[in-house]
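Recap from last week: sequence in, structure out.
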Amino acid sequence: MKSTISQTQLLEPSNCVFPPVPAVAPCGDLISKVDSSSGRFYSIPSTSEKIFYPSVTTILKTYFQSYLARWRGELGNQEADRLFIEAGEKGTLVHELFSDLVNGLTLHYKTTYDNSIPNKIIHDDYIFVQLYKLQQFFEIVKPKIILNEAMLYSNKYKYAGTLDLLLKVEGGTFLINGRNPVTIKSGIYLADIKTANNIFPNYHWQTAAYAKATIERKLVRSITGTMILHTKSKVKNGIEGFSCIVRDKKQMQEDFKNFLKVKSIYDIDAPQEPAVYQFPNSLNITRS
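Predicted structure tokens:
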């Protein structure tokens, strides 16, 4: 199987259509997300008191801080802040629009469309290119989406998060990862979309933590492995600029051990609940 896509070709399609996806199964619990100055927390269902668990990404920032400090030192705080916010906003938008795609919306690239069906126009080249790479992966591998953007938590290890994708893959050999075909075993995979320039070890620890919580919540019986769907890879063949990094069950277990090591450091001085900052709904200054 050969699928070679050039960067110029990526900009040619006038729309991005996803095949129909079965209804997403809910987690089954009423979980709410809380962002605060002390990080992101999730309010977890409880019969007695209100319980908050820190998010997986908040926990893993403990590991990531040293890398960020070096990066800021090289760029300067002001430029680093600008790039960090811009990358975060674009990454969030890619995730949101991809969820629209898998839920039946058609995305168009700077063009008119039929108003009678759900659509969105994407004017940003970068955003549309990332989404098109993801669509190519799904057209080639043809996984079944079990869950998309599902909140979940672990009572045993006291953390929570939102998984990107839980996929069922039939298995096979696919040209999606550069020059050499990738063999993916049949099974269920916890996949996470990454739009950063590089892939860091904590990304694998993140997906392993989600996988562990998914099994604990009995959403599936077992998970075969994890996947990072990297939309800013440097590969030229297969799907240009895209990589699928697969971790098997043994690697996933090691990744989870590393997550717990970071969490043990986080727990030393971790807040038990989100910091609350109260402010009025409106501001004004009376001039004398």
